[in-house]
Amino acid sequence: MTNKTKKRWMGSMLAVAISAGGILPYNVLADEVKAPSQSTVQSVKTTKISREEAIRIAKEFMAIPEGYVNNQVELEDNKFIGRTFWRLSWGLERPEDDFGQVSVSVDAQDGTILNAYQWSKETERNSILPGKLNTDKLVKEANALINKYYAGYASQMKLSEESLESFKRGGTPYMENSLYFERHDNGIPVSEQGLRISYDKKGKLRSVEFTWNNIEFESDAGVKNRDEILRLVEQELEMELAYLPNMSRPGGKIELAYAPKLKASSDMYSVVPRLFIDARTGKQISAQDGKEIGTLPGLNQALSAVKTTPPSDRNLDEAGAMVKLKELGILKDSMQVQQKGYREESYPAKRKLWEIFMIENQGDRKNVRASLDAQTGELVSYVQYGMPYDAKMGNPDKIKVNINKQQAEKTAEAFVRKVLPGRLDTLYMMEAVPNYFDGDLNKVMNYNVSFVRKENGIRVVGEGATVTVDADTGDIIDYNMTWSKQTLPATTDVIKPEEAKKKTMAVLQAELRYSLFPPFGPAGANQVRKAKPVYIITAKTKGNFYDYNASYLDARTGEWKAYGQMPVNNAGQPVTDIAGHPFERELQEMVDANLLEAKDGKVNPDQKMTRGEALKVFYVAARQPYEHYGPQQEPFFTDVEENSELRQAADWAIQTRLLPREEKQLRPNEPATREFLAELIVRGLGYGKLAAKEGVFEAKFQDSTTIQKKGEAALVTLLRIMEPNANNQFEPGRQVTKAETAVAVYRYLQTKESFIE
Fold this sequence. Notes:
Elements: H1 3-19, H2 38-42, H3 51-61, E1 69-78, E2 83-94, E3 98-107, E4 113-120, H4 121-124, H5 135-149, E5 157-159, H6 161-169, E6 177-185, E7 188-199, E8 205-211, E9 215-217, H7 226-236, E10 239-245, E11 254-260, E12 275-278, E13 284-285, H8 318-327, E14 335-345, E15 351-360, E16 366-373, E17 379-386, H9 387-394, H10 405-419, E18 427-429, E19 433-437, E20 440-455, E21 458-470, E22 476-482, H11 497-505, E23 508-516, E24 529-539, E25 551-554, E26 560-562, H12 584-592, H13 611-622, H14 647-655, H15 674-685, H16 688-692, H17 710-718, H18 738-756
Parallel strand pairs: 9-24, 10-21
Antiparallel strand pairs: 1-2, 2-3, 3-4, 4-8, 5-6, 6-7, 7-8, 10-11, 11-25, 12-13, 12-24, 14-15, 15-16, 16-17, 17-22, 18-20, 19-20, 20-21, 21-22, 23-24, 25-26
């Protein structure tokens, strides 16, 4: 395999391994991977399932396509999951750029399939449109698979209703369609335990992931019911104003939201409650160790009562950056500078940075990387790693806990005071959170200490500084500072906290389940994990207007709004204004596929579109994450304001060549004509230059003399993306409706997908 070919193959494999939730094979980087002989492998450990039997089981479970060659047979004794298993894989690589991988892990004692995935070059050709899957058929097949390969577990597994609902709605282009069969004990679902079966958009089995630990379940006697729990949550819930850096939206504005009053570091980035409630006491507990969460006195007092001001315009050169690092005690005489670099960035904020890489030559060898703001001289990030950490990960007996939580907090505070002296009046320290090795509460690796940013006494969600302190040495081993520079909105005309609380409670649900504390840890045969009944409080997701925590309660309007990479509409909910419309079927399919915005159950199909609105239909249907193009870059079009909701769609259209760079004005408020729509489609297909050549694409219209983009009009009609009227007129200057635009976009996506295939 050439280096070039290997790099391409590895990049693709990395992508699929991540998307499948898997791990790259141990020896995938080897120039030549040879399967060890039976005698070599069996000498490692005696197993009930032989090498040949494991291969037979794997091939039966997931058919190996023709041309694939076995490139890995590895026996792994994994202490963490408490299983010894065969890791098997088959690969395909051909000179014509066709490649793929099939990987299956088989328990070496009982033959259980622990995980499996298959991937090929074909699956890399992903399109925007989700597949149309036969849900009933696939659920039936999934149950048959469970009864055949997981018969000993089948009685304790149940298909998750939320998983089924999501499956029916269809996955996004970047996520697989999955059916999740949860483990249950005494009728109660168990968190992170069960079988996930994923399919590609054609309904072909893509991957399985099976997790089933050795667990001791507490009795569910004395558990409160859901109504009791929600009443207790309502009594305890406090809502507070919060600044929400909405950096993923056009212009990067900071929004004013209501958020639950902060009680745990894990909630720093959330504006929608996700609470763990002890099912017996009704008290909020930590998701990390299951202990009751109290108040956070540190959030009531800033690190400094005196007004401080961040430095500015220092414009440090390379020498100045070195001096500053020495002043901060980061660059020491015993260190050797290996690399220095300067960069300017616009996301998440416009800033100039010096990045320095150093090596400690004395004592244990340590690598240190630091970034410094060239304008303020403040430390932006810092990380220290090296031999001691690696030794502990390899041998847990070397983990020593010489630092307690209080000492870690003092160390972290002293460090922040040194590196951020101009921001102390806006920083509030939270309680240190220990990080355990493999979930062992007696083995603390380090402590995370968070410093919350508050402005005018109002929390800025997700911003401030975080410091990690080594539990053995007390060294600072990691630090990051996040601080947006956008103008803070006024706090006037906001709804009252009581109203915010009422609106929040209206979207919350309580789900009883068994949870493990800590959530992750060793699960060996002799290491029994303990689970207790808890209620998990989350926002409703099935058929609702948002998923997970990616929404916020607008503090002024009291409306729930979306931000970031979000579903665009009420996917799966009925639309009330398209019944009987000529394009009813296509519009409903777009809504169901989450490719068309629907607000309050309405699409407004007959709305006349402007150029900006039509472009936004393209952008929404493309399902691009808002953060794909940094909102801090300069707007390309002179007539699209930086804070405009259209800004990201316009920049995306330039990046994807839907619009020509020669035109500096979008004219977003002018009518969107059929000719404009045809031009967007043809450029999106990649035939813009070809269509401009006279005579390449031709179609005879009754109104041909009025058409400027003749090639574009001909091509979209030849492809049946757009159609002429009953009089064979293309009507280039007629303003299109939202329905016409959406349907043309849908057909364009279908055509583009057929080209790929």
